[in-house]
Amino acid sequence: MKKSIIILSSTSRRGGNTDLLCDRFMEGAKDAGHNVEKILLRDKNINECLGCGLCYNFHKECPQKDDAALIIDKMVNSDVIVMASPVYFYNICGRLKTMIDRCCAHFLEMTNKEFYLIAAMGEDNRELMERAFDSMRSFIMCCPNSKEKGVVAATGSLNIGDVKSSPAMEAAYQLGYTVGSS
Is 12 helix (H, G, I), strand (E, B) or coil? Predict the structure, then answer.
């Protein structure tokens, strides 16, 4: 069954390791016949949540006029959400956390989603990457009836392009190709 997939790439480096993994996931998903859109969060204007409560207490539109509302709408209307981040200090980057925080009024609308997680970090210790994945999982836990379906972890990827020789590239392709098969 054809799925609608949105990839949230939070890397600061176009063509960096996280971005390359996203492209490889996207290639696999497209080869399997899915509709895929990758959003580079770095190219979007996404402000921090103000905590004003207009959206979740009064069901009003967010007073901020940035790109977050459009991205959230795409997340709500997709079947699959891929969250991708470089790992900084063993956690997701601030750009992805800011996007997650802006979902505060709409996460309950993100029901029955399949989530895939992608991360790249310089250190060669997979266990240290778990904190980053746990941050992403905290969001998934709040989205009703949603499930984590797969993870791509690229360790030892400090410099741009390091991931090209990593098994994570093939893992990203295969994960994208098998979206919706289980």
Answer: coil
Report how far apart, in Å, the C-alpha atoms of 171 and of each of 9, 22, 29, 88, 117 are: 17, 11, 12, 22, 12
> b/e per residue, 57-92, with b = 16+ CB within 10 A?
eeeeebebeebbbebbeebbebbbbbbbbbbeebbb
Domains of the chain: 4-177 (3.40.50.360)
User: Which tens digit of pLDDT belongs to each residue from 77-91?
Assistant: 999 999 999 999 999
CA 155 to chain centre: 17
Confidence band, pLDDT 50/70/90 cuts, at residue 120 = very high
**What does 48-60 look like in DSSP terms, one character per residue?**
PP----HHHHH--
pLDDT band, very low/low/confident/very high, at 59 (cuts 50, 70, 90): confident
Cβ(149)–Cβ(115) below 8 Å: yes
The CA–CA distances, whole Å, from 167 to 84, 103, 145 equal 17, 33, 31
Task: Give the integer Cα–Cα distance in Å for 86 and 18.
Answer: 6
| φ, ψ for residue 88, nearest 5 deg | -115, 125
Q: Indicate the length of the chain as a whole number.
A: 182
